Structure formats: structure tokens, C-alpha cells
Amino acid sequence: MMRGTFANIRIRNEMVPGIEGGMTRHIDGGDPQPIYEAAMRYRDAGVPLVVVAGKEYGTGSSRDWAAKGTRLLGIRAVIAESFERIHRSNLVGMGVLPLEFKPGTTRNTLALDGTETFDISGVAGGIAPRMDVDCRIVRADGSSEDIALTCRIDTLDEAEYYRHGGILQYVIRNMLEAA
User: Fold this and answer.
1) What is the pLDDT of residues 21-59, one digit of tens each?
2) Which of 70, 116, 69, 60 is nearest to 97 (CA)?
3) Cβ-Cβ contacts under 8 Å for 179 (sequence gap 6 or more)
4) DSSP characters for 138-179?
5) Contact status, residue 31 vs residue 16, Cβ threshold 8 Å
6) Phi, psi of 96 (to 5 degrees)
7) Is 126 exposed, middle or buried (0-12, 13-18, 19+ CB in 10 A)?
8) Residue 30 CA to chain centroid, in angstroms?
9) Strand bridging mode 97-101 / 144-151
10) Could you please report the per-residue DSSP string of 38-66?
């Protein structure tokens, strides 16, 4: 299933304009390649991934499998303009951090082109629902920009799930503590 994540033939990745389907470009450059192959290269190099998206991220997804595949590909956070309600919750359940751009800020207003790296800080000390999270965007030329994002972990229960790495880990730890 992991190989099928982001493989919808209608998906548009702005890093590879004019190509539809589950293709991307590795930060090293080169020809477009399947998202799965690029994700495995990043995994092998120990690089955690971030997805940057538009509005209603997760709409039309295959629900929990979309979030599972996201996590299995090594994606640790999704930064979007907004989230489809159930998919956002499923991301949290899989231990993927949903973050939202502040109003008036988008991938377009930031002129992102896919060569950037993202440093998300302020979450190691714990997550509070709807807290602000700092993000430093470092561009290929070495310049950087700091922005604030809204953490879309919306409840205290979701904060606990995320703290444990996802809902499955949360349940297992609670079962082990009760035994």
C-alpha cells in the first residue's frame, strides 16, 4: 500500500509542472521519479519529510490508509492551507503533525519551488491544541524565512496520541501500564 500512496493519476505535484500522477523530483535534481522511490531515497538518507499542500488537503483520500501510507513514506508533517476534517484526524492518529498556514500565507505567497528545506521547532517540549509552531524555510540559495504555523492538533486527546507517536502506540502503552 505504501507504494500506492500519492499515486492517484489526477494528483498534481507543483514540483513537476505538466506531469500528473504520483511523480516528484528529488532535492538532488534530476528527472522526475515516482514519489515512492524519492521517499525511499530520503528514508535511506535519514531525512524526515514534509508535505506542503493547498486547501482541503486529504479530500477524496482513502481515509485511514492515506494517513498510514503518508507515515510509512517518512512524512512527519503536512503543512497545508486547510485540511479535510477526517483526514486531519487520521494524520494525528498516525503520528503525522498537521500544520496550517496562517491566513494570507500560502505556498504561493511564499514562492516555494520545492528546493527548500523546513525546520519545524517548538514541538519537542510538547503540543498544545492549536498552538503556534515556528518554521524556518531555508532556500537553495541559503536565504531563510521564518513563519508561524497553526498546529492542527485540535484536542488534548489528539495531543496525547501525537505525543505517543500515534493512537496505536498510545493504546499499547496504556494497556502495558494497566497490566
Assistant:
1) 899 999 888 899 999 999 999 999 999 999 999 999 988
2) 70
3) none
4) E-TTS-EEEEEEEE---SHHHHHHHHTTSHHHHHHHHHHHH-
5) no
6) -100, 130
7) exposed
8) 23
9) antiparallel
10) HHHHHHHTT--EEEE--TTBTTT--THHH
